Amino acid sequence: MKKIINTTKAPAPIGPYNQAILVGNTLYTSGQIALHPDTMALVMDDIQTETKQVMENMKAVLAAADMTFEHVIKTSIFISDMNNFGDINAVYGQYFDEATAPARETVEVANLPKFVNVEISMIAVR
To answer: Which Pfam families match (predicted)?
Structure first.
C-alpha cells in the first residue's frame, strides 16, 4: 500500500503529483527544483545556490518520511547545461558521504520545468 508524503517544508506540488510516495520501506521522490517552499519563488542566483535549494528541498521531503540522505540508494540529476556539472556535483557532494554515496545518473536535457538549470529526484530505502 502506498503512503503519500507531503511537507510544507518543501515546495508544494504544482501539478497532479505528490512530493513523494512511500511503498513499504522504499521512498520514491518527485523531482525537486529550486523553488523556495515559503514563497514558491525560484532561487536561481547562481548554479551553486540553485543546487543547494534543490538539495534542501529534498532533505525536507526525506525528513517528512523519517529518512535522511543516508537512506538514499539512487538519484537522478537532470541539468540543462553539462558545463554546470562540476558546480552542481560540488554542492550535491556535500550532502553525501562519498564512501556510501548512492548510485546516480546525470543527464543533460533540453528544458526543465520553469526553465530551471537542475532537477533532482531520489529513491531511498529504510
So the answer is: Ribonuc_L-PSP
